[in-house]
Specification:
By secondary structure, this protein is of the alpha/beta class. It has two domains: about 250 residues; about 200 residues, Carbon-nitrogen hydrolase (Nitrilase/N-carbamoyl-D-aminoacid amidohydrolase), CATH 3.60.110. Helices cover about 40% and strands about 15% of the residues. The protein is built from 14 helices and 15 strands. The strands form three sheets. Strands 3, 4, 5, 6, 7, 8, 9 and 15 form an eight-stranded mixed sheet that branches. A five-stranded mixed sheet has the order 10-11-12-13-14, with helices on one face. It has a two-stranded antiparallel sheet with strand order 1-2. Helix 1 packs antiparallel against helix 2. The radius of gyration is 25 Å and the shape is globular. It starts with a helix and ends with a helix.
């Protein structure tokens, strides 16, 4: 059936609506299995009637749907930065539309439906993989994240990671589209042609099992998974310091005093960890002599009576580079003297036995903590978004550090945005982490879906790695998450709170932890081959007719 171009716009918007209604944290992810079907109808129209469309029609007609999806699900970024929200929504939508344009290009040039669908799958997954690994990283809308609140559906992520969810969604959409394409419309009624009836039955059965088998396996895994008993006792503090009006203006001793007043009464001789959120210490501490700063002295003094206690807290730190020390791209020059320094978003662990252990956030927030490092783009540092803290590109660690703790297990710190990155998260586990601690500050976006989506992604990280997670958020949601992804003692947004609980440590490595995003790497190679093949066919058609 031939569709008018106005109908194509409506179909595009329908896809955007379905993707939004299927997205966390209140959507129903079953809609994701059909959300791309309208976009596939659009592409099919262009494939069948190429002379009626301009060169980049696939981009033009799918862009409204992707804009609609990005706007409806990530509009809340505007609460922290209008420019950042505009860039994230527009650029991410454009990237997605470009992927569909590339898929259509390959489908048309190779003139093979199977090659076309392979292109859609491989190009999209390669795009998601890029979003996990470049300076403009924004994997928030990677399709596999769509099951974050329905995590009981995807217990098999311990084998595939969230990329397995992306494959599940895309293949299901293709099969549903193929089923629909075998139905013919006559006089407004659906008619099944005799020669297609057998294929329709086959496709229907395949779709049923494609969706049902992973669900059944996941429910069975969830019901039978049992944690080994290796208890770790934790106290998590949610101080609820307003990031706009208090965090960077209150004197550091006042902030530390609030955290200690809340958290220390919950500590006893059996407590292994007390955890406070990201960026809690804003004393401009220099790592060259970090023990000399008031905040550190107050905290170390508070834990002195507890020899088994480890404290983890976030703060902004700086490091003065020695003369001749190599300068990384994030090195900053002093304005009033010679020399350079690095600025960091840091997680600090200390106890009564060891020296301070520092981890520097390594998956940085684009536009706020990092700007493109491509040659010739250094001038973008002048447009870094100022949220009150250190502005411009921060330094980062090259390895995923695991803390050596006193009288307890090995723990790894995850700072805020880092909890979205599955393979990155798994690297800490490969390095020996037996329990994970997320510290974050989710108050920038207000009481919107933003902080709830961010929280929900932790379900997936727990399943992928089978690691228990303690989460301390400055302004909510703080909680304990077990190895199945279940949440315990979740706090309320914008309410000061202290929670005390026990999590089980684990030292088993899942298949995903061992192999990471192997699906994405394979699909990226396939995408490269398909692009080469498409270019080759284009040259052949143009010059060797």
């Amino acid at each position: 059936m031939k569709l008018k171009k106005f109908h194509l716009i409506l179909l595009s918007l329908l896809s955007g609506a379905l993707l939004s209604l299927g997205w966390p944290e209140r959507g129903f992810p079953g809609l994701l299995f059909i959300a791309f079907v309208p976009l596939l109808v659009i592409e099919n129209q262009m494939f069948r009637h190429p002379r009626e469309f301009i060169k980049f029609s696939a981009l033009v007609y799918t862009l409204p749907g992707f804009l609609f999806w990005n706007l409806l699900t990530t509009w809340w970024i505007v609460n922290s930065t209008f420019v950042g929200a505009l860039m994230a929504i527009v650029l991410n939508s454009l990237f997605m539309a470009i992927i569909f344009q590339a898929f259509h290009w390959t489908h048309k040039k190779l003139n093979n439906p199977l090659a076309g669908y392979a292109a859609l799958l491989s190009y999209w997954i390669a795009f998601e993989y890029l979003h996990l690994n470049w300076d403009l990283n924004w994997p928030w809308l990677n399709l596999g994240n769509g099951f974050a609140t329905y995590y009981k559906w995807v217990q098999w992520y311990e084998y595939t990671g969230a990329m397995g969810g992306t494959v599940w969604i895309l293949v299901s959409n293709v099969m549903v589209f193929e089923l629909i394409s075998k139905l013919k419309m006559q006089n407004g009624k659906c008619k099944v042609e005799v020669q297609n009836s057998r294929f329709i039955v086959q496709d229907s059965i395949f779709i049923f099992f494609l969706i049902a088998i992973p669900l059944i396996f996941s429910f069975y895994t969830y019901a039978t998974y049992s944690e080994e008993k290796h208890p770790v006792n934790l106290v998590v503090v949610q101080p609820n310091i307003d990031p706009y009006s208090e965090q960077y203006t209150l004197p550091p001793p006042v902030v530390i005093g609030r955290i200690l007043k809340m958290g220390m009464p919950a500590v006893d001789s059996t407590t292994n960890f007390i955890v406070a959120p990201e960026s809690a210490i804003q004393e401009n501490m220099w790592e060259n002599d970090i023990g000399a700063f008031t905040s550190i002295k107050l905290l170390k003094q508070a834990i002195t009576p507890f020899p088994r206690l480890n404290m983890l807290i976030g703060g902004s730190t700086y490091y003065q580079l020695a003369p001749g020390e190599p300068l990384q791209r994030w090195a900053r020059k002093f304005t009033d003297t010679e020399g350079h320094y690095n600025a960091y978003n840091t997680a600090i662990l200390f106890n009564n036995r060891d020296s301070l252990q520092l981890y520097h956030k390594s998956k940085l927030t684009p536009g706020v903590e990092i700007l493109p490092s491509f040659k010739g783009f250094k001038w973008l540092e002048n447009f870094a978004i100022n949220l009150g803290g250190t502005v411009g590109s921060l330094g980062m660690d090259s390895i995923r550090k695991v803390y050596m703790t006193v009288n307890t297990v090995k723990a790894a710190p995850i700072i805020c945005y880092e909890s979205i990155f599955g393979e990155f998260f798994a690297e800490f586990v490969r390095n020996g982490a037996q329990i994970m601690i997320i510290i974050t500050n989710d108050g920038w976006w207000g009481n919107t879906a933003g902080h709830r989506q961010h929280f929900s992604f932790a379900h997936l990280r727990a399943i992928e790695t089978r690691r228990s997670i303690a989460r301390s958020a400055n302004t909510g949601i703080s909680a304990f998450i077990d190895q199945r992804g279940d949440v315990h003692k979740a706090t309320v947004y914008w309410v000061p709170a202290v929670i005390r609980g026990t999590l089980n440590a684990n030292d088993r490595l899942t298949f995903y932890v061992k192999h990471g995003d192997y699906i994405a790497r394979f699909m990226s190679y396939l995408a490269g081959l398909l692009i080469i093949g498409t270019i080759g066919m284009s040259i052949r058609q143009k010059y060797f007719k």
